[in-house]
Amino acid sequence: MATGSPKIFSHLSNGQPGFSLSPRIDQVGVEERASRFTKRSIKKESKLNGLKLVLNMIDLTTLEGKDTDGKVKQLCYKAMHPHDALPDIPTVAAICVYPSMVKIARKALGDSGIKVASVATAFPSGQAPKDVKIRDTKYAVNEGADEVDMVISRGKFHSGEYNYVFDEIAAIKEACGDARLKVILETGELGTFDKVRRASDIAMHAGADFIKTSTGKIQPAATMPVTLVMLEAIRDFYYKTGKMIGMKPAGGISKSKLALHYLVMVKETLGEDWLNNEWFRFGASSLANDVLMQIVKEKTGVYQAANYFSVD
To answer: Which of 59, 149, 209, 290 does the annotation list as catalytic?
Structure first.
């Protein structure tokens, strides 16, 4: 992948810097379209199914310097048993941890089918030499990671060194082996929708399996307009190449109602083929408890207190 990809990039950009084929984005138009998705009405049965789908799309995450083996094991248990009083609800999609915690998560999850995702490449800053990022990635994969969440080099991107960003993503993709690669754009640092679109295009052409909004460490994190720009980039890429790319908004999505709006946006932009955790994820651990509360409300007609659910 790393050998052939730069040629693809050079061809697509016509040899000019700036990834010139990325379209300009109408900011007002994007914001207006995104707001329309929040006005769709969702019937009771559809809402319950949607809530279960949201839960099944969540990457439960712990990315703190104070993480311990015990905390990771507890999070893995919650991933497999979101709420034992409701036996018909699904598990989450994945557990996301630092590379040093991958082996702990892998063992705790066993044959549950829940994926182990690991951040890598000097998360969250991305400020490390390429060889360090590659070693970080290979370590995570060798420890048992099914997925790798990398961050792009935003400094290089803002300096206009798009080929560097492209080549680095391609090299990390190669280091992933069979693991899927999620490329984090850190959209809150990119500044404009035009830059979000350009970074999305670079990541997809370089080999990303997913594109992801944010690390969750800065604000703003995921927003509906930014996510819409990325979804439209995925749609255009699919029309051109026939290759499906996944999407992961991360950070700032803590309420079920907002998550359901995101699902409406995905369906109307990309279609139902993307409405599963193979192609869409939420990076929002705090969302899980709110979804569980809403599912209980839909089933029983009453809310349970927050302390009925685990505190992450």
So the answer is: 149
pLDDT score, position 15: 41
Determine the length of the chain.
312
> Which of the 8 DSSP states describes residue 91?
P
Q: Name the residue type at position 23.
A: P
In angstroms, the CA 35 to CA 29 distance is 10
**Whether residue 173 lies in the annotated active site:** no
pLDDT number for residue 309: 63
Identity of residue 145:
A
Q: Which two tokens stand for residue 215?
A: 């690390």
Q: Taken in order 275, 278, 283, 284, is the CA torsion positive or negative?
A: positive
149 is catalytic: yes
The answer to whether residues 47 and 264 touch, using CB atoms and an 8 Å cutoff, is no
Of 103, 133, 195, 248, the active-site residue reads: 248
What domains sit in the chain, N to C, each tagged with a CATH number?
Answer: 5-298 (3.20.20.70)
* φ, ψ (nearest 5 deg) of residue 87: -70, -15
Candidates 103, 133, 182, 212; catalytic one: 212
Which tokens go with 231?
């979804």
**Residue 126 CA, distance from chain mean position:** 17
Q: How far is CA 20 from CA 137, 186, 189, in A?
A: 30, 21, 21
User: Is 136 assigned a catalytic role?
Assistant: no
* Dist. CA 300–CA 141, nearest whole Å: 43
According to DSSP, the residues that pair with 210 across neighbouring strands are: 182, 246
Q: What is the pTM of this model?
A: 0.90
* Dihedral, CA of residue 262, residue 274, residue 184 and residue 219, to nearest 10: 0
- A 10 A CB-CB count for 256 gives 24
Binned average pLDDT, 10 residues per bin, the chain of 312 residues: 39 44 91 93 85 96 95 96 85 97 98 97 94 97 98 95 96 98 97 96 97 93 96 97 97 94 97 97 91 87 64 58
Q: What CA–CA distance (Å, rounded) separates 238 from 157?
A: 24
